[in-house]
Design goal:
Layout (H helix, E strand, L loop, with lengths): L1 H14 L18 H11 L5 E12 L2 E12 L2 E7 L6 E8 L2 E6 L4 E6 L5 E4 L2 E4 H8 L13 E6 L2 E7 L3 E8 L2 E9 L5 E7 L11 E5 L6 E11 L1
Antiparallel strand pairs: 1-2, 1-15, 2-3, 3-4, 4-5, 5-6, 7-8, 9-10, 10-11, 11-12, 12-13, 13-14, 14-15
Length: 235
């Protein structure tokens, strides 16, 4: 990005006798308003019929470094994530959603647990639990469904950015957009004030938007998880 921004400036300074340009003006898009934003978000994150992706998951949790290869597949009402040992390529853990059932598999211990999807309430991140229903759409490449809640509050935190804030009894979430693309999610539980932040960057070469990287951090700690997509097919 820095090279792309500097090249036009070099051309201008080298070919003009005008006064030096000290600042490049950035065109800031006009805000759309809540309803138009949501409509555009639905368009940018259109429903996929099939998904196939490979990724690298790395990070640090409680001062322990982690590194996995991963695959993500989905079609119809099924969605699967598998984490593998990066050296031996053997499965480590996996999660499978098939219709109304969620199955977690610990391949190392040869154990599995299945629950109805509507009873699968929590997901563990950094040793803390957060509501699965909020984060599940993000795993599949969509914004959290709660942004379409009529109670979601629309605001403009800074030029070029639009924000939707949702507050529930147990948690609150802030979802930021730039050019109608989700750039970050701030999530905080109300009881123990646990916070997790997701940042989305890059773009896959697919028909609909999908990020190239997802960074998950926990403030006031060194914990982080980074998901870097290596390949992606979305139809």
């Amino acid at each position: 990005m820095k090279i792309a921004l500097l090249l036009p400036l070099i051309v201008i300074l080298g070919c003009s006798s005008a006064q030096p340009i000290t600042e490049l003006e950035k065109v800031v898009p006009e805000p759309l308003g809540k309803e138009a934003l949501l409509a555009k978000v639905k368009e940018n994150y259109s429903q996929w019929s099939s998904l196939s992706a490979t990724f690298i998951l790395k990070g640090k949790v409680e001062n322990a470094e982690i590194l996995y290869d991963g695959t993500m597949t989905g079609s119809g009402n099924s969605f699967n994530i598998v984490l593998k040992d990066p050296v031996f390529r053997s499965p480590f853990v996996s999660m499978r959603v098939n219709g109304d059932t969620v199955t977690q598999i610990d391949h190392l211990r040869d154990r599995s647990q299945s629950l109805p999807l509507d009873q699968f309430k929590w997901v563990e991140v950094f040793g803390k639990v957060f509501p699965f229903g909020f984060f599940y759409p993000i795993l599949k490449g969509y914004p959290p469904e709660v942004i379409f809640d009529p109670t979601a509050n629309y605001s403009l935190p800074k030029p070029g950015q639009e924000r939707l804030t949702v507050k529930k009894q147990d948690w609150e979430a802030i979802v930021n957009f730039e050019s109608q693309i989700m750039t970050s999610v701030f999530f905080r539980t109300m009881n123990d004030k646990e916070i997790v932040i997701l940042a989305f960057s890059g773009k896959q070469n697919t028909a609909r938007y999908f990020p190239g990287e997802i960074l998950v951090t926990r403030p006031n700690s060194n914990d982080f998880i980074k998901i870097q997509f290596k390949s992606m097919k979305v139809q």
